TrEMBL record:
Residues 116-127 have a biased composition (Basic and acidic residues). Its EC number is 2.7.11.1. Belongs to the protein kinase superfamily. RIO-type Ser/Thr kinase family. The gene is Riok3. Keywords: Antiviral defense, ATP-binding, Cytoplasm, Immunity, Innate immunity, Kinase, Magnesium, Metal-binding, Nucleotide-binding, Phosphoprotein, Ribosome biogenesis, Serine/threonine-protein kinase, Transferase. SMART domains: RIO. This is Serine/threonine-protein kinase RIO3. Interacts with CASP10. Interacts with IRF3; RIOK3 probably mediates the interaction of TBK1 with IRF3. Associated with 40S pre-ribosomal particles. Its cofactor is Mg(2+).
Length: 495
């Protein structure tokens, strides 16, 4: 009997030879390291990408945003040097041609992000080479394992690349610097806690700015506008609706002399998630202006068409002198216009403002006027007119939200107009404006038509009959009937 008792042989799961094996040790060590330094590029992505919109193109976007930021800093440095060289001298030299940020291009209706610069980044040192993953290089006696002090030190230096981008590592990566494990581990600890801290900070910032409500591509678009100096700053979100998000921004400098950017702007971002737009098809599908294009388009382009429609409609209104936002620029699904309001505070909607009975009456007559102008001069029906889309600013009513507006000859144009009239009538009748016409009278007053039905059902039936007549005319003659003649007489529907 053995004095130390019987050895429990079953608990040995591997042989002594295995345990002592250099090879196994290396493998274990490598495994451990791989776990400690997973090959995640995601570290760099972390703070910038939020929500559900992580797609494969976001690496590209990130790179582009960084490059732009970089270019901006470069330009700032250039300006400082320019200033230093020129001093008070009467003759000055300009570094203008060396600038990297160039005025915002408003050209392309191109599909993808048009800013693509793959220049080699001159500021970044080449990475020092590291030993390959297998843990050793060379053969036989010349084998160098990763435990070699020098190699290990270099490798540690190279690993600083894994730290978050905002973690300043100085020139170490470029030099032949060898970090001992101890130093490296201390740095690593610090870097990771910094990263967590900065992620927290960034999170806070994101919640307070415009950025959270839009996808990366849109953010890049907005970023470009700011970067080009067209917008000074985007201060925050005014409204998040089903179909759009609206931001406030301070205007910047225009690239061209003739165009003035308003001091305060509203940025309407049409949402690129499509579900909400499905039920709006009828507005655009039947709008002959967009008819040819509709069938061929992909959903993303349809969204852009809404933005385009709003722009065109606003321009028409502007030309007729109707108080409405002024178009600044349209870029893809992002429409920048003048801000109705002041000091970041948007003008209140008519539904939210309490007007004196005098102002109420004034507002009513103004709207009556605007509806007629819209119909006769702009050849448009608002199609979503209500106290929600009228703002009270500067003692008058401003019309907004015209992406769904259509021409009166739209197959449902008159129905839309009737709905608008009903909203307006009801609002002002409830608001105590005794003079307010009822919806049928208002419809006739705006359209110049003379529908005599004295009840809503018959009235609507007549409207639909008119629309159908017009459609048939289009079918038979390939062109629309004029809804109104130039001298202001009611339109002639019969031939
Ligand atoms: P939606 O289709 O989401 O209703 P709107 O164009 O009506 O889009 O904009 C939503 C809200 O944003 C408006 O109710 C208004 O409060 C605000 N808004 C939109 N455009 C402007 C602008 N140019 N100036 C000030 N506020 C605006
Ligand atoms: Mn609206």
């Amino acid at each position: 009997q053995c004095p130390w008792g019987a050895p429990n042989t079953t608990s040995i799961s591997c042989s002594l030879a295995d345990v002592m094996s250099e090879q196994l040790a290396k493998e274990l060590q490598l495994e451990e390291e791989n776990a400690a330094f997973p090959e995640v590029v995601a570290v760099a992505e972390g703070p910038f990408i939020t929500g559900e919109n992580i797609d494969t193109s976001s690496d590209l976007m990130l790179a582009q945003m960084l490059q732009m930021e970089f270019d901006r800093e470069y330009d700032a440095q250039l300006r400082r040097e320019e200033k230093k060289i020129n001093g008070d001298s009467k003759v000055s030299i300009s570094f203008e041609n060396y600038r990297k940020v160039h005025p915002y291009d408003s050209d392309s209706s191109e599909d993808e992000v048009d800013w693509q610069d793959t220049r080699h980044d001159p500021y970044r040192a080449d990475k020092p080479t590291t030993t390959p993953r297998k843990g050793f290089i060379g053969k036989g006696k010349d084998i160098t394992t990763k435990h070699d002090e020098v190699v290990c030190g270099r490798k540690n230096t190279a690993r600083m690349e894994n730290f978050a981008p905002e973690f300043q590592v100085g020139d170490g990566i470029g030099m032949d610097l060898k970090l001992s494990n101890q130093v490296f581990n201390a740095l690593k600890q610090h870097a990771y806690s910094e990263e967590r801290r900065s992620a927290r900070l960034h999170e806070k910032k994101e919640h307070s700015t415009a950025e959270k409500a839009v996808d990366p591509k849109t953010r890049l678009l907005l970023y470009k506008m700011v970067n080009a100096g067209m917008l000074e700053t985007i201060t925050g979100c005014i409204s998040t609706g089903k179909e759009s998000v609206v931001f406030h921004a301070y205007g910047g400098k225009s690239a061209t002399e003739d165009k003035v950017i308003p001091p305060e702007c509203a940025i309407k971002v049409f949402k690129t998630t499509l579900n909400e737009f499905k039920n709006r098809d009828k507005y655009i599908k039947d709008d002959y202006r967009f008819k040819d294009r509709f069938s061929k388009l992909n959903p993303r382009k349809i969204i852009r068409m809404w933005a385009e429609k709003e722009m065109h409609n606003l321009t028409r209104m502007q030309n007729a002198g109707i108080p409405c936002p002024q178009v600044v620029i349209l870029k893809k699904h992002v429409l920048v216009m003048s801000f109705i309001g002041q000091d970041q505070i948007p003008a209140p909607k008519l539904k939210d403002v309490t007007l004196s009975s005098e102002d109420m009456k004034k507002a009513y007559y103004q709207i009556l006027d605007m509806m007629q102008q819209l119909y006769k001069e702009c050849n448009l029906v608002h199609a979503d007119l209500s106290e929600y889309n009228m703002l009270w600013h500067d003692g008058k009513v401003w019309l907004i939200d015209v992406s769904q507006s259509v021409e009166p000859t739209h197959p449902h144009g008159l129905e839309f107009l009737f709905r608008d009239c009903r909203n307006v009538s009801q609002f002002f009748q409830k608001g105590g404006v005794a003079e307010a016409l009822n919806e049928r009278e208002l419809f006739n007053a705006v359209s110049g038509l003379n529908i005599t039905a004295d009840n809503e059902v018959d009235f609507q039936a007549e409207i639909e009959a008119l629309e159908k007549m017009n459609e048939d005319h289009v079918q038979n003659h390939g062109k629309k009937l004029s809804m109104f003649s130039s001298d202001g007489d009611p339109p002639i529907y019969d031939e």
